Amino acid sequence: MINRFRLKKTVCHLSTFFFITVSSSAAAFYDAYPESEGPYVSGPASESLQWQGEDFSNYSDGQQLECSNDKSPIPHFDVTSGCLASKYVDGLKQGWTDDKVFRVVSISKYHNGNEIKYTDQMNQYRAYIKTWKNGSSIPAWSGLHAFARYQTSDDLYVASVRYDGNVTIKVKYQGKYTTLAQTKLTNGAKRYLDKNGKLAAGQWYTINFSAVENTLTLILDGTEILSVNNALLAEGTTGIRTDYLSAYLDDWQLLPGDSTDIDPPTDPDIPTDPETPDPVVEFVPGQTNANNGDVYSFNNQCYQAKNSPGRWEIPKEGSWFWDVVECVTDPSIPTDPDVPTDPETPDPVIEFVPGVTDVENGDVVSYKNSCYQAKNNPGRWETPSASSWFWDGVICPSSTTILGVHTLHLYD
After folding, report:
1. E-assigned strand segments in 274-397
2. R_g (Cα) of the chain, nearest Å
3. Cα 45 vs. chain centroid, distance in angstroms?
């Protein structure tokens, strides 16, 4: 009988036995081939030594397949961190993970019931990055990863397509990572990088990572990207790892190491997002308590919070507390380009009179034919200037109404 909790010598580094949980799994040791569950069959991936693969076609929509802290009777893979579910999108059946840290390894059995350690092998899967997680604090090494000759969580080969645009092949041996090969993605027929030079979300990636004798090769979307030799690990299983993203997974296969039957890159079945995007919250100085990673609108521009801006750090370009981002509107709401909309009347700008005008942080004032935004509680006697700690120079809105102390007039 298969022990689906597969303690597999899964212990923390303090040598205390425990079941892997979502939060603690990254610090846990996982053994895919504990001595207590042997003997094992060893050989190259072939017709006689197969793994059934996973295309997620046999599950219901929204079905939770397995979590690292809630094992299921699925015998052909083991989730060691996070959760794996099935999800239907536009009639397509795919896997789904929404965990910042997700790991899963394949489990293969020979006809006599013994598990298989593969020598030559090719790990193939497709992934669609829906969104990146953690706002502006995404580690550079995050992204899509493929395991080969995985023996334990401390002994494995991994090929990575990373958030920072780098592609790497590494060996982890006795708990220590060593980079064997690395290159940088560039945009060509397919745009791998977004405008910020980061790995683009919103598209499929097909990853093939093979280990044949001592040669490790990474193929991305049908094109060989990296190849390097290393002889530290001779056998093991395959797996998938993702970090700091939400992703659809599909067509996970174990192929012969020298296979030429590689799925070509396909993009016709990119899932659309049926969910309505969250509305963007307007930032009101002194009232809105901004959370890191959330997006807010201010003065008709959108910003993503970072470094805990709180209520008083006004969103602006170049701020340590904010990143300028694209405003995303609800695509399900139709707009009529032929119907003109009435322009909104801008908020009045206060004319600053030293010793008289009281302002609050975020207020825009006019002084000597220039406009300034208050910060750091300037009070009545802090005269606006571009170099002041209490003021930022800003562009005066056109056709702005200026509120004087005694009179109301228009300022052009």
Report:
1. 281-282, 295-298, 301-305, 322-325, 349-351, 364-367, 370-374, 391-394
2. 28
3. 31
3-class DSSP assignment, residue 193: strand
Q: Rank 27-36, 247-256, 287-296 by mean pLDDT and report only the highest.
A: 247-256
State the pTM of this model: 0.61
The pair of three-digit structure tokens given for residue 317, joined into one six-digit string: 């370009």
Neighbours of 336 (CB within 10 A): 7
Residue 412 has pLDDT above 50, yes or no: no
In percent, how much of the chain has pLDDT > 70? 79
User: Which residues, at least 6 apart from 20, have a Cβ–Cβ distance to it below 8 Å?
Assistant: 10, 28, 30, 68, 69, 80, 81
**pLDDT score of 348:** 62
- Nearest Cα neighbor of 235 from 206, 208, 212, 261 is 212
pLDDT digits 0-9 by tens, 89-117 = 888 999 999 998 999 999 998 888 899 99
CB 160 within 8 A of CB 211: no
Break the chain down into helix, strand, coil percent, rounded to 5: 0, 40, 55
Q: Could you tell me which residue, 330 or 83, shows the higher pLDDT?
A: 83
For CA atoms 77, 81, 87, 90, give the dihedral sign.
negative
What distance separates the 2 farthest-apart alpha carbons in the chain?
94
